[in-house]
Structure formats: structure tokens, C-alpha cells
């Protein structure tokens, strides 16, 4: 005979199972996105993330602000930005009065390349989550907004 768990312990176990499901789905979707970006655009997910952050701020961002928003080290962002500059997708702009600070922003070519990748990315997400109805997606999103996660961004 199985003895039921106390309510608090049952809730804890259910939340743990939820976390593991969310983690599994996130990892599967992320792996698929990485592969598709690599194959179809010879790009990476971190590169896509940098371009997305710069797309949201067309006037550009200081390097330290970019790394803060992406929650990665300045060193990680610097390497990605270097490659994007080499490819002509991003430009660096020196800031008057602050020799140490550099502003980075997408070039016209970078905006076009990102727009194409972002359209494909949205389509991939839509296909990968095809089994979730629009109403369910909205409901799940509402439930996840209840979580005390500080992302630093507004959606």
C-alpha cells in the first residue's frame, strides 16, 4: 500500500518534476536552434543573441551594457563582437569624452542579416512548439510570469 505524501512534500515533488520538464524541453529546443543556425546561417546562438540585443537598441549599446543585458562576461561579448565587426554586421563607435568606452551597433547589412535569421528563428520555434495551442502558450506564459525570476528584461 502506498502512503500519500504530505501536501507540502507532494507540492515540492511536483515542482521538481516541472523544473526537470522545463529544463529538458529548453535544452532540446536550444540544441535544435544551435544546429539550425549553424547549418543555415553559419552562425551561433551567442552571435544571434548579441545581434538581437543590438536590434532592440538601434542607437547601439556600450560593450559593458551589452554584456550586462546578455548576462555574460565582457570577454565573451568582445570575441563575438570582434567576429561580427570582421563580417561587417556590427560597427564600433568611439564615444567622445570616454576613451575606454565603445558603442557597438548593427550595420545596415547586420540589420538585414539579423532580420532574416530572426524570421527563420521564429518559424523554427513555431514548428518546434507546434503541439502547444496559442491559448495554452499564453496560459503557460502567464503561469511562468508568476515565478520570481529576475531576468532584467521586460516582455
Automatic annotation (TrEMBL):
Residues 15-149 form the HTH marR-type domain. InterPro entries: HTH_MarR-typ, MarR/SlyA-like, Tscrpt_reg_MarR-type_CS, WH-like_DNA-bd_sf, WH_DNA-bd_sf. SUPFAM superfamilies: Winged helix' DNA-binding domain. GO terms for biological process: response to stress. Keywords: DNA-binding, Transcription, Transcription regulation. GO terms for molecular function: DNA binding; DNA-binding transcription factor activity. Pfam families: MarR_2. This is MarR family transcriptional regulator. It comes from Halomonas heilongjiangensis.
